[in-house]
Structures are given as structure tokens and as C-alpha cells.
Amino acid sequence: MKPRVLIVVDSDPRTSGRPAEAIRVAAGIGTWKKAEVLLYLRGAAILSLSEYSDEWIDEDNFTRYLPILQEWGRPVYVQKGASELALLGEPLTPFEEVSEAQWASLAAQSTYVFRF
Q: What's the mean per-residue pLDDT of the chain?
């Protein structure tokens, strides 16, 4: 059984390079196919999925690496009911809203959890 890696991002892509780096790392780890990689975005980090990422810090990482995550056939998980969802527009990749209980379950079932 492959280890499961959960990458949790809650940094704002408008003011921090951490979301872009987290997406780059997720794509890199997942490409090896030695681990199942899940990406969970909370709060302002949800804006990382926006089609209008050209003003975000390290914006090329979003358009370059989010399509790689989409190829895996798994959605990006996002915080259910977050106010930032209304600001997304057309997302760059499919996503699924998960509740706090579902996110806690994802974390508990993961071998590794990284936070950005």
C-alpha cells in the first residue's frame, strides 16, 4: 500500500509564495507515483484555484502544476463553506468541498501531513 501524503495549505497566494510552492511540491511528489497525494486548501488558499492567478506570487506554478494534479483524477479538497469560494470564478481544476470532520478524517488516514 502506498503512503498517503496530505498537503494542507492555508496561506494567501496574494501575499505569500507558500501556496504556489505547496502545489509544486504536490505535483512533484505525485509524479513519482510512490505515494498518494491529496491537496487540501483552507481559507484564502482556495484562491489558488482561481483562473485569475496572474497577480499571485509565483503565479506560473499555479498554471503549470495544477493541471498535473487534475491528471490524477482526484479533486483538490477545499474548506466547505469558505467565503473565498465566491471569489473563485472558473477554477483551474475540479475541487470538492469537505467539512471539518471530513478534513480531520483525511488527516487521520494520511501517513504524512505537510502544512504550508
A: 93
